[in-house]
Structures are given as structure tokens and as C-alpha cells.
Amino acid sequence: MRTEKSNLGFGTKAIHAGQHPDEVTGAVMTPIYQTSTYAQESPGKHKGYAYARGKNPTRNALEKCLAALENAKHGLCFSSGMGATDAVIKLLKPGDEVITGNDLYGGTYRMFTKVFEPLGIKFHFINLHDAENIKQYINNNTKLIWVETPTNPTMQIVDIEACSKIAKAHQLWLAVDNTFASPYLQNPFSFGADIVMHSVTKYLGGHSDVVMGALLMNDDQLFEKLAFIHNSCGATPGPQDCFLVLRGLKTLHLRMKAHCENGRTIAHYLRNHPKIEKVYWPGFEDHPNHAIAKKQMKDFGGMISIVLKNASLEDTFKIASSFQIITLAESLGGVESLINHPATMTHASIPKAEREQAGVVDNLLRISVGVEDIDDLLWDIEHALS
Ligand SMILES: *Cc1c(COP(=O)(O)O)cnc(C)c1O
Fold it and tell me: In terms of DSSP bridges, do strands 195-199 and 173-177 run parallel, antiparallel, or are they unpaired?
């Protein structure tokens, strides 16, 4: 986009940032540059593109758009969210330590404990409900604080600003997995984060048709390091997927408003339902960190978890399987509503004792509220619960 106006709104950036009509044909949409390599005039003399693992124009447009949405200087797109997280941990070396939450996304926990712990990196999984807890785990080997907020699936809120103050005082990097909130609801750089990670698969793609990850950052040196890992290790996405995400982003602001509105209605409905014991949603005033959620989020999103009253695993499975509009599936953030049983699906890789300590009990279900008509969703929930 070529405009002299600064301070563009979120929706304008979602539609235009990083993109402009094609110089040759005038094509309004960024083409899918389905090529692995680029012609060179003489060895090393090219138009800035040599090999597509390093750079691809469709991917570059997307990286610029995502950076704009997070108010960041740099962006890198990865072949998955886990690929993006993997690159951050590769900034570290054996002996280094990471402080992180005890209710992380299951795949992140699995990577930290099963891939990187054996390589000599130490992880402290702690309660981040009060960021002050971090301090007692900091020593000379600590390099990184890795935070997820809201957390998955119990919607705990971590105070990003409080974490960043501690990180800065001890010269640590603060990385925030911003997948659940999306940049529409929460911009961790405004609260002092150094790296923002997204599973683009979720709200950013928004249509459950792409697996992708992204890292955003402001610091040039940090960008150089991560870009080096990105190109060296090679977890880069293809141009077709980048095109699909560019298309998905154009409605991110519209979708997020609808997710929040439906989420709010469903959260209140479930809370008053006799078959529900507990509803996790950061928008409730009595949510333990509601004030922090209000400070750092624009609204509360469409992710809700519920604990069914007096339900065995069997009862829970039965209810999870009896929805007609809401689909039983892993993942979240798409236009369609999904329901998930974390204990046996997304969080099965976490040992039972640890899982239950983090509130992921057998009768907990997580709903990714989509943007269907609210009356139909409420009908489906009422029908399944009865
Ligand atoms: C899905 C998810 C990831 C992993 O992303 P993939 O794109 O599936 O690799 C990481 N963090 C959170 C919070 C997620 O929901």
C-alpha cells in the first residue's frame, strides 16, 4: 500500500499492508509466486530473490502485513506455529534456562520437554497468574520468558507488562504466544514484549484451511538472528498458503468482532445453565485476572471452556459428540464453531497429574465460538446438553 497517511486503522492495515497492485499487470491481489528459484543476470546479480526458502514475494507481502498488524518492524512466516516456536528456542544453547507457564499449549509443552530438554535447555513451568512468581526462578542462565495469554484451555490471563518489566530488569527476552487473542484484541509489543509468536493456523488464517506460524519483532539484531535460523533450518511456508492467509486477514477485524459478540452471549448463557459447573472466559468480572484482561485486551474473544456438572468421561464424550452445528475437532479460530475435549485431544501429550493440576479435567470441554448465527449456536448447545 502506498499512502502518506500514518496511523492507519487496523482494518485498513489488514486489507492493504504489505500489498500493492502488481507493477507489470496491475493485478490487485498479490500473485502466488509458485517458484523455488529466480533467474540471475550474472552470478549473484538478481532482483533480491535468489531461492524461495530465503525469500518469496507472496510470503514477504504476508510478513509485512502481519508485522503491521502487531505494530512490529519485522515479520517471519513459518510452516507452522510449532516451527515458529522452534526457531525462538534455537536462539538458546545448552545450559540456558527458560521460564514459562504451567498451562501451555500441549504441543509447546511437548516440544520443550521432549525435544529441547534432552538437548540441555532447562524449562521452569510455573504459575504465571502472578508475574512476581517469575523472579524466584531467575538465575545467570535464564535467557527467555515464554508466555501464553489467554492460556489454553482455562483462559488464565498473564500480565504481559509485569512480565516485561521483570524481563527488562534482568536482560531476558520476553516472547508472547498471541494466538488466542490475535493482534486485533491484544498487541504484546505495547506492553514491552520482544517477540510475538502466532499460530497463523487459527484466527489469522481464520478458515481452518492452512497450517502456518509467524514471529514478529522490532529489534534488528533479534530479527537477523531469527531470520538466519528461519533460512538455515527451513521451516518456511509455501506461497499458496501465504496467499490464503493474506485473503483471510482481510476480514480479521470483522471476524474478531463477531467472535467476541457470539462468545459473550454464549459465555453468559452457559454460566446460567444448570448442567454447567464452571465457565472459563476472561470477560466475566469475577474472572481472577479480569482487570488485567481489560487492560491488555480490546475485548475477550470467542474462546470458552466449560466444566460439565457431575459428568463422567463417558457423559462428556456423549455430549461432545452430540452437537449438530458445532464440530468436534482440534484447532480453533476459524469461522466455524468447534468443540474440543482437551484431556484426550489437544492436551493428551501432558501427563494426567500435571494436566489436572492446570484444571484440564476429564469433564472439561473447550469451545471455539465461530461466527455463525447466534440463535443456531444456542440451539445446538441447548440440544446437546439435554
Ligand atoms: C495451535 C497452537 C500452537 C501451534 O501452532 P500450529 O500452527 O498448530 O503449529 C501454538 N500455540 C497455541 C496457543 C496454539 O493454539
Answer: parallel
